[in-house]
C-alpha cells in the first residue's frame, strides 16, 4: 500500500508526466555515485519499498529530461527511474 501522505510536490508533478515507459520509482535528493544513484524513493511500482526510504539504483544511464526531471534506465534495460531532484555536493571519503 502506497502512503500518499507527505509526498513532495515535485514528485507529484513528475508522476503526472507521461514518460512513455513504466516508472519503477521516483528519487529525490539523489546523489550520483559512479553509474548509480542513491536517493529517497517514492512510489515503488513493486510496492516493496516504502515512500521516503533511501535506496541505491543499479547502474543506470540517462535517457531524457523533462524540465528539471530526468529519466534514467538501468544498464540491463528493465528498470526506469525518474530523478526528481539532486542533493547538494556529496563528499565521500574512504575510512
Folded structure, characterized:
It is a single chain. A six-stranded mixed β-sheet has the order 3-2-1-6-5-4, with helices on one face. It is mainly beta and 95 residues long. A hairpin with a 2-residue loop joins strand 4 (60-66) and strand 5 (69-74). The longest helix is centred in the N-terminal third of the chain and has 7 residues, at 9-15. The mean pLDDT is 90. It contains one helix and six strands. It has one domain.
Count of DSSP helices? 1
Describe the main β-sheet briefly.
6 strands, mixed
The quaternary structure here is: single chain
Mean pLDDT: 90
Low-confidence stretches: none
Kindly state the percentage of residues in helix: under 10%
Span between termini: 38 Å
What general outline do the C-alpha atoms trace?
globular
Strand order of the largest sheet: 3-2-1-6-5-4
Order of helices and strands: HEEEEEE
Structural class call reads mainly beta
Strand residues, percent:
35-45%
Gyration radius from CA atoms, angstroms = 13 Å
- The strand count comes to 6
Summarize the structure.
The chain has one helix at residues 9-15, and strands spanning 25-33, 36-42, 54-56, 60-66, 69-74, 80-83. It has 95 residues and is mostly beta strands.
